[in-house]
Design a protein that fits this description.
The structure is a single chain. The chain is built from twelve helices and twelve strands. It has 374 residues and is α/β, with parallel strands linked by helices. The chain is globular and about 55 Å long. Helices cover 35% and strands 18% of the residues. The two termini are 40 Å apart. The strands form two sheets. The chain has a seven-stranded mixed beta sheet, sandwiched between helices. A five-stranded mixed beta sheet has the order 9-8-7-10-11, with helices on both faces. β2 and β3 form a beta hairpin.
């Protein structure tokens, strides 16, 4: 029997859960007050988040000595293969001092290692957001200085793919599907026999509750040089204050649906436009799969809305069957992924920085070697 603690730091929350084999023991989302985080960079929040973790374990009566492993959401490392990586000192050092980008998830592996190392148990990240299996042809953007990068909700997308594979009594490696993860941001991927050959990041696909998604390039350049926005304000306009929030003043899908039910025609038009763009994204991804997808999977928190999923389904069901697997499933996906590693059903890899020579593709990354920028 294995007891696994999972840690998922967000921008204003720390999600913590514990599983005994497949059974959840508890799940908790700790909301951090704005004044606790004010003025602190991500790594400067380590002490606060570590105290939160210890307090949560104590509250639920789970002793650290009972743990078999700690699993964390993977942060902004160089590109990785999918699956489990054991957290080591080099990964922690990279996230602390040389992350690819500032992101709350960078704290996940650092917190997990700090807890696990003194106990002599392993810490892992699983299906990190930087997982990259894209075909080389998918990397071209049209501007050499701006290559397309794999960035999407890998953790929940692969979890949804596994659930779909279980329903069809096949291994995940035999599934060819399009998946759209719909939350505060909306991202998508094309899986060809279980490999994520292309993605739509939340910056190049549909607008979402809080993000602008793909916008007209020339107009964006003009806006950025108009003098109205500095770098920080322009970033917030695209991420955080875009999408539904920009049009309707709220990022809550429930609030938007309440307005529509009350007769707000503009809210209905914006909501339909978001579904319309999701459907366009699905069509775009479907074209890169030889013969098209066998299924289209809608997942994430917004997939709980029958209204929104029906708007999408009406437009894309001619492509393939639409399967709804709602929720983010982050903590479960982390725990079950690491459980498979502990049971010997999946391998884990060791993080190291070893750029191969030449112009490698994803298949050239040696097993056990992580991380080089394409």
């Amino acid at each position: 029997m294995h007891t696994i603690l999972t840690v998922n730091p967000g921008s204003t929350t720390t999600k913590i859960a514990a599983y005994r084999d497949e059974t959840p023991l508890f799940t908790e989302t700790v909301e951090h007050r704005p004044e606790e985080l004010a003025g602190k960079r991500i790594m400067e929040q380590f002490g606060l988040r570590r105290e939160t973790l210890a307090r949560c374990l104590d509250t639920h009566g789970l002793r650290p000595s009972e743990l078999s492993a700690v699993a964390a959401r993977g942060g902004k490392l160089p590109p990785l293969r999918r699956g489990a990586y054991r957290v080591n000192a080099l990964m922690v050092e990279t996230l602390r001092k040389h992350p690819v980008d500032e992101h709350a998830s960078n704290l996940g592996a650092v917190l997990a290692y700090d807890l696990a190392e003194p106990l002599g148990i392993p810490a892992y990240i699983y299906d990190a957001v930087v997982t990259d299996e894209m075909d080389d042809v998918a990397r071209f953007s049209g501007v050499p200085e701006l290559p397309r990068r794999a960035s999407c909700h890998v953790l929940n997308m692969y979890a949804a793919a596994r659930k779909y594979a279980e329903r069809t009594s096949r291994p995940p490696e035999e599934t060819t599907v399009v998946i759209m993860h719909m939350g505060g941001g909306i991202s998508g991927c094309a899986l060809l026999q279980g490999r994520m050959i292309d993605v739509l990041s939340d910056e190049e696909g549909p607008f979402s509750p809080e993000r602008a998604g793909r916008v007209p390039c020339r107009q964006l350049v003009n806006l950025c040089f108009s003098g109205r926005l500095d770098h920080s304000a322009a970033t917030r306009r695209m991420r955080g204050n875009g999408g539904l929030r920009a049009y309707l003043g709220t990022g809550s899908v429930l609030e938007v649906e309440r307005r529509i039910a009350a007769g707000d025609a503009y809210a209905a038009q914006v909501y339909e436009a978001m579904a319309y763009q999701v459907a366009k994204g699905i069509g775009e991804l479907a074209t890169v799969l030889p013969g098209g997808p066998e299924a289209i999977i809608l997942t994430g928190a917004i997939a709980r809305s029958q209204t929104f999923t029906q708007l999408i389904t009406n437009r894309v069901r001619f492509l393939a069957q639409v399967v709804i697997i709602p929720g983010e499933n982050e903590m479960e996906a982390l725990a079950l992924g690491v459980l498979r590693v502990l049971r010997g059903e999946e391998p884990s890899r060791e993080f190291c920085l070893a750029p191969p020579e030449g112009n490698p593709t994803w298949t050239d990354i040696p097993s056990g070697v992580a991380a080089f920028c394409f």
